[in-house]
Amino acid sequence: MATIGFFDGVHCGHCFLIRQVECEAAARGLTPTVITFPTHPRQVLQSEYRPRLLTTPAEKLQRLEQTGVEQCLLLDFTTHLATLSARDFMEVLKHRYRIGGLLIGYDHRFGHNRSEGFDDYVRYGRELGIEVLPAEAFRLPDGTAVSSSLVRRLLSDGDVAAANRCLGYAYNVGGTVVSGHRVGHRLGYPTANLLPDHPDKLVPANGVYAVRVEIGGEQHGGMLNIGRRPTLDNGDDRSIEVHIFDFDRDIYQQPLRLSFVQRIRAERRFDSLDELVAQLHRDAAEIRAMLG
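Now predict its structure.
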């Protein structure tokens, strides 16, 4: 029994779907299987398309593994695969991957023109020997239907707390510490500048965030600024700078991961460096209290 999708973020809705696959598979003596793609299908069809990924390919596979699903198949999405009709694609699943059952997500469509729907899939399944079942939709207690596009929108608005509720974990960005402008040292708040590991990983909206910082196997609280540092006339250079609380080590060129907790304010321009420093003091006190 399988389900198929890109599974970007492996959010609460995805995990709910995988639990259903496991239940249906157990009832039929089938292997619970997730079929996913290492590359976003749209990138194959539009070479200039740049996805805003919630999880890098490696992160996605790690999170799928953490769900405990018995089998995960990586299907290379090729231009040939994109030309297949829904029925032909299901035939590939049946004969190449021995899929005996397919659980279809509530909003999932496949096939080259995506014009066919669930009833068509059921009909093709009968012809091919694949049992096709509808998946139950997942909603948060407030009725919100969770999707990867919703999580992207929340992160793009800076609402990382709401995004985390949809994901079921703290959204995070990993990368390498690189050299910066070193202005933070002069202001009393030295920062580590992060270069993300993956160019397509979505970085949340500009602003100041409470974060947890993983460095060298340790976790620390941190105050993060994403933006163009308008008070310092930084131009169009968007930076990701984190001040790690109670930390004083040289970590240049070391890997670092940021887990987002909450945005406390938008980025803004101050009339002087003194005003900026005063605000940084207030930000740091608020974030320390928030992180406990």
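The radius of gyration is 22 Å.
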